[in-house]
Amino acid sequence: MSREERSVYRTEYDSPLGVLTLYSDGTALTALTMPRWRYQPPEGAAEAPELPVFGTARRWLDDYFAGRDPGALPPLAARGTPFQELVWEELRAVPYGGLTTYGAICRRLEERTGRRASAQAVGGAVGRNPLGILIPCHRCVGTDGSLTGFGGGLPAKRTLLKLEGHDPEHLHPVPARR
């Protein structure tokens, strides 16, 4: 069975942001949407709240929304272009409570690949993240600490940053350590 022919399952999770919808291919999470999410979720997903990956994701989200570092991520299967997947990998390297900038991601990608990357291209890839919160695109801010776009809206981004101990009005990004 090809990736395109795989079944898609979904379940819902009540969060401080509203109802989140989790999607899975049966073994890994493929998308997480939230109220006001700018991108469309997968179509034709069957309700399957008892999948083990959904249980793991619920426990992770319970810890996260309780203001605790939730530790290791549930299995993820974010699918995008090779460039997008590199950017999402860089986002996953930003620790709980950490911040990064589009420029910092560009520099890390240039070091890894030997090819130039633009902050605009990185911003586009960050914005196409199908697994918001889990792949922490909310931890990416402007070089001056300003809040930038977020697929769930800036109020949701502020809430997530506050949960991680930040004052969204006074952010001081520090490059993530590897």
The total count of helices amounts to: 5
Cross-sheet strand order for the largest sheet: 3-2-1-4
Shape: globular
Q: Quick check: average pLDDT?
A: 89
* Beta strand count: 6
Uncertain ranges: none
Order of helices and strands: EEEEHHEHHEH
The portion of residues assigned to helices is 25-40%
Largest sheet: 4 strands, mixed
Instruction: Give the tally of structural domains.
Output: 2
User: What structural class do helix, strand and pairing data support?
Assistant: alpha/beta
Distance between the termini: 37 Å
Radius of gyration: 16 Å
Highest CATH level, the class of the largest domain: Mainly Alpha
Strand fraction: 5-15%
Q: Might you state the CATH topology name of the largest domain?
A: Arc Repressor Mutant, subunit A
CATH superfamily of the largest domain: Winged helix-like DNA-binding domain superfamily/Winged helix DNA-binding domain
Would you kindly provide a written description of the structure presented here, covering whatever features stand out?
With 178 residues, the protein is of the alpha/beta class. The chain has 2 domains: 63 residues, Methylated DNA-protein cysteine methyltransferase domain (Double Stranded RNA Binding Domain, 2-Layer Sandwich), CATH 3.30.160; 82 residues, Winged helix-like DNA-binding domain superfamily/Winged helix DNA-binding domain (Arc Repressor Mutant, subunit A, Orthogonal Bundle). The chain has 5 helices and 6 strands. The strands form 2 sheets. A 4-stranded mixed beta sheet has the order 3-2-1-4, with helices on one face. Strands 5-6 form a two-stranded parallel sheet. β1 and β2 form a beta hairpin. The N and C termini lie far apart (37 Å). The model has no long low-confidence stretch (mean pLDDT 89).
